[in-house]
Amino acid sequence: MHAVTLALTTFLALTTAVPNPFKEIRPTVLSHYSVWSGAIDYNKPNGRVFKDGRTSDITTLVKFVIPSAAAGKPCQFKFPLGTADTVTGSRKVDVFKSLGYPTGSTTGWPPGNRRDVQLARLVFDANKVASYEDIRTIESFTCPPAGEWPVEIVGVYDNVEVKWTGGSSGPVLLYKY
């Protein structure tokens, strides 16, 4: 019996000691963007995407800062949510590249959201796990050069809400080191 226990303990130690080949790049700033007015609520602790077809759509502007160690390495975009986070309605979001990131709050235009090309469409299942539905440009890609890499998270269809707390949930880049 002792030999079996020792073998299992050794096996578990070896399987948990396997290094993770990816490092995380978490957003440095989240800001809410009001589509109807162009207002930006800068540096929020949480992210929010909202559309109901009756009031202003809310998107989240996300600023990643790519370290020089990640530039040119294999990269992945993930969107994990926690148990306290919310997903309702269509359960779908689009991810767009942004041409720049705001430097503070505004009450209207400019600068606007500076939306560029669509990078992905994600759908969250009943367990709040996001998977790629259509466009998969950032499912696996080469990390951009060191510096700011801004994106915008936008709701899909006229009934959707996704809220996340920031920190350990919400959009994240993983790069292979």
Q: Uncertain segments of ≥5 residues (pLDDT<50)? A: 3-15
Count of the domains: 1
Average of pLDDT: 91
Number of helices: 1
Radius of gyration: 19 Å
Give the proportion of residues in helices.
under 10%
Order of helices and strands: HEEEEEEEEEEEEEE
Quickly list its features.
signal, disordered N terminus, 177 residues, single chain, Ubiquitin 3 binding protein But2 C-terminal domain-containing protein, Jelly Rolls, seven-stranded antiparallel β-sheet
Protein described:
This is Ubiquitin 3 binding protein But2 C-terminal domain-containing protein. With 177 residues, the protein is mostly beta strands. It is 8% helix and 45% strand. It has one helix spanning 2-16; strands spanning 22-25, 29-34, 40-41, 47-51, 58-66, 74-78, 86-89, 92-98, 115-124, 130-136, 141-142, 147-155, 160-164, 172-176. It has a single domain (21-176), classed as Jelly Rolls, CATH 2.60.120. The protein starts with a helix and ends with a strand.
